[in-house]
Amino acid sequence: MAFFLETLMGGLMAGMLYSLVALGFVLIFKASGVFNFAQGAMVLFAALAMARFAEWIPEFMGIDNLIVANLMAFAGAGAVMFVVAWLIERLVLRQLVNQEGTTLLMATLGITYFMEGLGQSLFGNDIYQINIGMPKDPVMVLESMFDGGVLINKEDMIAACIGAALVAALSIFFQKTGTGRALRAVADDHQAAQSIGIPLNHIWVIVWCVAGLVALVAGMIWGSKLGVQFTLTTVALRALPVIILGGLTSVPGAIIGGLIIGVGEKLSEVYIGPMVGGGIEIWFSYVLALVFLLFRPQGLFGEKIIDRV
């Protein structure tokens, strides 16, 4: 039982990290109706900025305090992501208002390759470490209930708490604020939203800035765990099954989908993997997503699209 709980907790925490990346997809789709293939590049770019600023600030400003240096690096990387969001809206999206979804999708693909190249030019292409002070040693819990206790990774636990807090804040933002309601109105119909006075360009800047902040948090956590390298863009591929399960328009769905995927991967690898030769963790989530596409394409919490003719 203790081993099962360890596997379950590991899956829940891994799923929360997937959800952080999936949130970026959901935010931009809710506000613009665009599937943003550039989200992985945004995570990489934000992580590179955070890692390099964390190196440069102590070197050039003589700051020895890790917390202060990381806070300044986070603020600097956040400012960079805001500038990137403004430039994307100003130079790309503003020119494509009311265009077909395929056109906007191709635009995000172009943004992906541009950001990868720009990140390499500005920050270099080495592997960088982000040290944000999170403890990496595991801890034993529930020792009184199970012989030997349950082993939990402290870093994963803290990351999961950060992800949960971020999801809660975004859910409140979309449901309870005027800006959040305007974002949902823009997602439903660009022209109708403009006709009632909602400034489309401002809304897109806001949502890309928020998505950039989410990418920064995700990049910071993934960079702390895996190191900042250009393969970090593939993290976005791990988030695709998450948004298919949770629904492309649901912020809570991103977290539920992430938890399902994380737990499913870990449990299938441990209990089914030995029977099929291992490696099931790599493809399990995609098979599960395919099943959902066949029987519930809008996901668990997504809005069902009905076309009236």
How would you summarize the topology of this molecule?
Layout: H1 2-32, H2 39-61, H3 66-91, H4 101-123, E1 138-141, E2 150-153, H5 154-176, H6 178-188, H7 190-195, H8 200-226, H9 235-246, H10 251-276, H11 280-295
- How does the helix and strand content classify structurally? mainly alpha
Oligomer: single chain
Shape: globular
| Largest beta-sheet characterization | 2 strands, antiparallel
User: Could you tell me how far the N terminus lies from the C terminus, measured between alpha carbons in angstroms?
Assistant: 55 Å
Number of strands: 2
β-strand percent reads under 5%
Computed over alpha carbons, the radius of gyration is 20 Å
The averaged pLDDT comes out at 79
- Estimate nothing, just give the exact number of structural domains: 1
User: What share of residues is helical?
Assistant: over 70%
Query: How are the strands of the biggest sheet laid out side by side?
Result: 1-2
| SSE pattern | HHHHEEHHHHHHH
Give me the number of helical elements. 11
Residue ranges: pLDDT <50 for 5 or more in a row?
Answer: none
Keywords:
309 residues, single chain, globular, two-stranded antiparallel ribbon, mainly alpha, 2 strands
How does this structure look, described?
This protein has a two-stranded antiparallel sheet. Helix 2 packs across helix 3 (66-91). It is mainly α and 309 residues long. The protein is globular. The relative contact order is 0.19. The mean pLDDT is 79. It starts with a helix and ends in a 14-residue tail after the last helix. It is built from eleven helices and two strands; from the N terminus they run ααααββααααααα.
